[in-house]
Amino acid sequence: MTEVEVPMNSNTAQKIDIDLQSEEGVDQYLTFCLAGEEYGINILKVQEIRGWSEVTPMPNTPASILGVINLRGTVVPIVELRSHFNLPEVPPSPTTVIIVVKAVEANGNQRTMGMVVDAVSEVHNIAAEEIQPPPQIGEAGDQRAIAGLTTMEQHMIILLDVDDLMINGVLGLLDDESGA
Predict the structure, then answer these.
(1) What are the C-alpha distances in Å from 172 to residues 104, 105, 149?
(2) Would you list the domain boundaries of the chain?
(3) Hey, which end of the chain has fewer CB within 10 Å, N or C?
(4) In angstroms, rounded to a whole number, what is the distance separating the alpha carbons of residues 87 and 20?
């Protein structure tokens, strides 16, 4: 078991245990909170977790794209997941973090992007057979970014597909606006 420090703000950090040796058929998911619900993303998509810091706003972008940060010389777009998922907005708190992820486009190119979340929870080992497909909700919103659902300790975790969420969902908004 390896312990990793996750910044909660510029002065404090939360420790998360990560078992870096995973079994075959089991993937590790970083879980985080957003509007009282728990979400998870494959740990292999996570580049780093940063404490909340202000971003540089960009003109003419969708409301869910807060702006950009400079991450060691790379300009990284920052997505406010609450806004993207049509959840109520709240001001940043001491537990608000930016999860920097690597999303892969259909052509194989990688894009570095950040997601603002309320708090990071922990890392879970989840076997493929423990993941249920998301329910079909019809026309009620875009559900493609939901990779599946799983239950841990009597609560549901919504597993997200980072590639679909970031490339098709978020960057797709930019394409839609530029084509309008």
Answers:
(1) 14, 12, 24
(2) 2-179
(3) C
(4) 33
Cα(28)–Cα(116) distance, integer angstroms: 20
76 and 100 in contact (C-beta within 8 Å)? yes
Which backbone phi and psi does 89 adopt, to 5 degrees? -80, 145
Predicted confidence (pLDDT) per residue in 37-83, tens digit: 999 999 999 999 999 999 999 998 888 899 999 999 999 999 999 98
Q: How far apart are CA 58 and CA 63, in angstroms?
A: 10
Give the architecture (CATH level 2) of 2-179.
Beta Barrel (2.40)
Average pLDDT over residues 129-157: 82
In degrees rounded to 5, what are phi and psi of residue 163?
-60, -50
Per the rule left: phi > 0, alpha: psi between -120 and 50, beta: everything else, 110 is beta
Q: What is the distance between the alpha carbons of residues 134 and 59, in angstroms, rounded to a whole number?
A: 35
Q: Specify the 3-state DSSP secondary structure of 7.
A: strand
Taking the C-alpha atoms of residue 162 and residue 114, their distance in angstroms, rounded to an integer, is: 11
Strands 74-80 and 110-117: parallel
